[in-house]
Design goal:
Blueprint (H helix, E strand, L loop, with lengths): L1 H29 L6 H14 L1 H15 L14 E4 L4 E4 L7
Antiparallel strand pairs: 1-2
Helix pairs in contact: 2-3
Length: 99
């Protein structure tokens, strides 16, 4: 008789916890705060544990997307070095003094 009551108590406790989880998740989905992002982060972190190679590849692709292009200085119209391959000569122009 004691085991039946014990299993009944455990069953009722599990139903209460399940009901609480459903109620909280329903409130999060319908709230204006947008607090479901933390759940997505939790699942994303769990995927990194099971497939770390894919997580590293995704992070590398994100870093390439944020990478900026190297642009020449707008003041310099021509490069300071001029290489002449026929004569084997390199000419370095002097910087202009701005006075």
């Amino acid at each position: 008789m004691v085991t039946v009551l014990l299993y009944a108590g455990i069953g009722v406790g599990c139903l209460l916890v399940l009901g609480l989880v459903i109620w909280v998740s329903n409130r999060m989905l319908h709230s204006e705060e947008g607090s479901t992002g933390s759940i997505g982060n939790a699942f994303g972190n769990a995927l990194e544990v099971f497939d770390p190679g894919q997580a590293r590849a995704r992070d590398e692709l994100e870093s390439h997307e944020k990478q900026g292009a190297v642009l020449p200085n707008a003041k310099d119209d021509e490069p300071p070095l001029k290489v002449d391959l026929r004569t084997g000569r390199v000419t370095i122009r002097r910087p202009h003094s701005e006075s």
